Amino acid sequence: MLVAMSGGVDSSVAAAVLVARGYAVVGVTMKLFCHGDAVPDRPCCSLDSMADAARVCAQLGVPHYVLNLEPAFGHDVIDDFVSEYARGRTPIPCVRCNTFTKFRDLVHRADTIDAPYVATGHYARATAGSLFRGRDATKDQSYFLWGIERAVVGRLLLPIGELTKTETRARARALGLAVADKVESQDICFVPDGDHVAVVERRLGAQTPALLPGPFVTVDGRVVGTHNGFARYTVGQRRGLPGGAHEPLFVVAIRPEDRAVVIGPRRELLGHAVVAREINWLVDAPPPVGATVDVQVRHRARSVPADVVRVTREEIELALHEPVAAIAPGQSLVLYDGDRVLGGGVIEAAPSMRAPLPVLAA
Amino acid sequence: MNAPIYLDHSATTPVHPEVLEAMLPFFGPRFGNPSSVHRWGREARTAVADARERIARCLGAQPDEVSFVSCGTEGDNLAILGTWRAARGTPRAAVVTTPIEHKAILGAVHQAAREGAVERILTVDANGVVESDSFDALVLPDVAVCSVMWVNNETGTMQSVPELGARARDRGVVFHTDAVQAFGKVKIDATTQAFDLLTISGHKIGAPKGIGAVYVRRGTQVEPILHGGSQERGRRSGTENVAYCVGLARAAEIADAERDVEVARLERLRDELEAVFLREIPGAVIHARSGPRAPHIVNVSFPDTDSDSMLMALDLAGIAASAGSACQSGSTTPSHVLSAIGVRPDLAACAVRFSLGSLTTDDAIDRAGRMIPALVAKARGLTGVPA
What we know:
Number of strands of chain A: 17
Strand order of the largest sheet of chain B: 2-8-7-6-5-3-4
Number of strands of chain B: 14
Oligomer: heterodimer
Distance between the termini of chain B: 24 Å
Strand content of chain A: 25-35%
Radius of gyration of chain A: 22 Å
Strand order of the largest sheet of chain A: 12-15-14-13-16-17
Shape of chain A: globular
Strand content of chain B: 5-15%
Order of helices and strands of chain B: EHHEHEHEHEHEEEHEEHEEEHHEH
Number of helices of chain B: 11
């Protein structure tokens, strides 16, 4: 079986658990991007992580390879990430990396070596062709996995999904893995120092509309200031907005047509419905109109009940039982039945959140 | 798994048993420092001098023209930077090389450029052979050193070094050749061939990693890189690696003695392997095949696969090969050599290098020829994809 190994504690323990269960494990680290040789103190393609993964494999007595998936990752994940920000949306590259890079391209590499199973260190569970939340609710990563082709779910092994993070670290220590106490990465892997604007600028140039100044507009259409590029803003954000209002203000929408960042008080942020596209189902029978499911609109957000209002092959609309704040286009909508992932899509809008925005007066 | 098949001799070779045997005493009782006056030192000094003489004989050189270095990379750096620095302040301000050199040469040439040299890169044809017009246009009397590798490590392309060396000499230009892949494959003779500097490396010919030698023709000015105790006639300070010098000499003698027989044998096996690729693998493209080449390298692209996946599948099936330039990460980056000879990026991204040598038996080629087409078919998703 092929185990995707980042060099971190989760995938290292996943590999160790599977070796202990008697699987013939092949460790693979994907090389997905390269910061380039020009930056000496930031080694090319996170060299240390690859060395960590290689060391763990050597310790487990299994082969380790580095596969260069850079061109496809650049196209499927980084290009999309940049163009989503350019469209005023808030992308989740991890979802696309799982959908296209790990669980499509890497699965194809598994076929090359006759590996029937693919394993990762995700906090989620895959049983009998179905995908479930991880046992550790605080670490659950099932939200990022809704886009996997359904046939692949049956080939997934996610041993860490049965553990809590504390248990994972304890296992790593018990196994004597050097990565046991490695600090967890919070950043998006290809975005150094969390500076997504730098990535957008590198790809599209400083003069791209998403990085040019534009107006701050209130929900009732008043221009109240100037921002320095809407790609720096995301729905729900408070930081970097004009002050002086009598109540806290948030970004409630981004309008790339006139480069406007629309701001308003918290009540304007509440969505009562949500529309998503690029739907992928992980069950035989998708929930019909009228069905009640649990939905999650953001990583680490609490799921809330919702009714299916409309569902087609491409699009789904749900009415939320209770309003949810900061539903951001570009993020994922994931549908659950309890712990089971039913499917998901990319959030297009939260339409009943407010009336259509007035066009900015000239 | 059957006995593994090692087809990566251009990366490194196993130490020849006779080489190991020749070295062993120098890890034991004969541990002296060649610079010492006492009997231990004398003994070591004699061993190094003897090794130098034997290597000189293999190269048609005088013993004082042979300097030991730690590896091919050091030899190449000494040749390029040493010659360029020695010529600094003279009108010879340019450094010339080819785009298909080993990174040891390209890196040294770039360093010379940072130090003020004018960098000139020759053009090569689709087989990697240096184009004559380009040589005439770039190798002018303002050149400090021109370096052209004898046998390319990725494609096996062989240059007519004696001829190019003679043309460089006509213009008074110092000529270096990286012969790391050539030694043991082509006849090298400094008395009749017009190179001024030449690099060889031990671990490509059955000696250990960590030893090489540079031939420096008498009268060629080379500024040392390492300064200190003036070993190696001041060309390379540092206590001699006595055991490895002895090992390199033994390995060179064996490779030299076996050359003709080994070349014929490897050519036959290579042709067999190539025939299988072309017959059994639709779309397979063998690079630099129609030009002059050494007998031990097959660089082949299997379209609709990628190099990394193929190397993984080959390794898991017990076959060792390599691709492109190994990146520090263990991944590969598309080969600068293939791109320089005009190979399309999509073909370069699925190239694999098989290199034959001492471990390559008829049986190994036979088995590799049966296994590789099946692995390629699988990588292309044509067979056996589990549901």
